[in-house]
């Protein structure tokens, strides 16, 4: 079960005030690791407490999805999972994995980048980009009309990360 610092925010749909970012002069907010194609000044990124089982699944899932993409790539995947829990109401990491059809293997042991990124995103309320991101995929592995119909926020490590339009 997810225990959030502010449980009233769990089901709240946040109305975004989005400002487009000019990539040539992209501004990285002081609290974000990367600049995105959009900035949401109302984006909320709470600390999310995890059960031991959820942390185990999360660390292995992030390893399977982005373990070779360094701290930033791992943080992006971890942020997608946290944002799905916060903004879409998934109760567990396993619910996110099944509901959003993550395909990353759970068999590989997490490396230090994964462990650090999961802690940064979930334990510290950190962010990779200053916008909710719910979906991602790797265009080199599959094509996805669904993903491409969503709002592209950032590309990193061969993945494209998206938010919903609302």
Fold topology:
Elements lengths: L2 E2 L13 E3 L17 E3 L7 E2 L2 H15 L3 H19 L4 H7 L12 H12 L11 E3 L7 H4 L2 E6 L2 E5 L3
Antiparallel strand pairs: 1-4, 2-3, 5-7, 6-7
Helix pairs in contact: 1-2, 2-4
Give the overall pLDDT as a whole number. 85
Shape: globular
Total beta-strand segments = 7
Please state roughly what percent of the residues sit in beta strands, choosing from under 5%, 5-15%, 15-25%, 25-35%, 35-45% or over 45%.
Answer: 5-15%
Helix content: 25-40%
Please list the strands of the largest sheet in the order they lie side by side. 5-7-6
Question: Major sheet: size, sense and barrel closure?
Answer: 3 strands, antiparallel
Unreliable spans are 1-28
What is the CA–CA distance across the termini?
27 Å
Characteristic terms for this protein:
14% strand; 166 residues; globular; alpha+beta
């Amino acid at each position: 079960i997810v225990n959030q610092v502010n449980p009233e925010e769990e089901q709240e749909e946040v109305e975004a005030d989005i400002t487009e970012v000019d990539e040539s002069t992209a501004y990285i907010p002081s609290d974000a690791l990367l600049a995105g194609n959009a900035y949401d000044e109302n984006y909320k990124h709470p600390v999310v407490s995890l059960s031991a089982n959820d942390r185990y699944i999360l660390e292995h899932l992030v390893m399977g999805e982005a373990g070779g993409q360094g701290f930033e790539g791992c943080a992006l995947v971890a942020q997608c999972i946290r944002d799905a829990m916060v903004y879409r109401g998934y109760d567990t990491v396993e619910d996110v994995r099944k509901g959003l059809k993550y395909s990353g293997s759970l068999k590989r042991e997490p490396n230090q980048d994964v462990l650090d990124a999961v802690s940064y995103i979930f334990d510290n309320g950190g962010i990779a980009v200053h916008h909710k991101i719910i979906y991602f995929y790797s265009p080199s592995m599959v094509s996805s009309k669904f993903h491409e119909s969503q709002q592209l926020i950032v590309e990193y490590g061969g993945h494209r990360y998206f938010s919903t339009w609302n």
